[in-house]
Amino acid sequence: GFGYAKVSADLKAQWQKQLVRYLEEREPLRGLVLLMDIRHPFMDTDEMMIDWCLKARVPLHVLLTKADKLAFGASKNALQQVRTRLQQHEGEVSVQLFSAMKPQGVDELRDQLDTWLTAEEEEEPPTE
Which of 73, 75, 94, 115 is 20 to 30 Å from the Cα of 122, by its Cα? Predict the structure, then answer.
């Protein structure tokens, strides 16, 4: 999440290029976790990462961070709005609430990472 970094636009552009190059060259990439501020979803950098994942066919898991900053109902509403906007990509993109302060959503994130990291192990045929 470098969208709010207080650096020049040129430096942010360099970071974006480096990030895309890294992701494109990263062969064992099983999925990508995108940290999206629940109060400001779908910033330009968020959109860029979502588009990249969809085009590259890389599974994406969106963490709506800072969920503790909103009331329970407002956070659930924001979650539903993001899910609705991404519903056409169901199966490729998943979304959850997350708060490092509470902590909230840690187990759900851990389950997603476990799914990605154990998927290939289950698919590989046993060696003789």
Answer: 94
Q: What is the pLDDT of residues 33-50, one digit of tens each?
A: 999 999 999 998 899 899
Altogether, the residues listed in the chain come to a count of 128
∠ CA 8-12-17, rounded to 5°:
145
Tell me which H or E stretch contains 112: helix 106-123
Instruction: Note whether 43 and 5 are within 8 A (CB).
Output: no
Give the model's confidence band at 109: pLDDT under 50 very low, under 70 low, under 90 confident, else very high: very high
Q: Which two tokens stand for residue 87?
A: 């519903």
E strands present in the chain: 32-37, 60-65, 93-97
Query: Is pLDDT at 104 greater than 80 in this prediction?
Result: yes
Q: What does 24-38 look like in DSSP terms, one character per residue?
A: HH-TT---EEEEEET
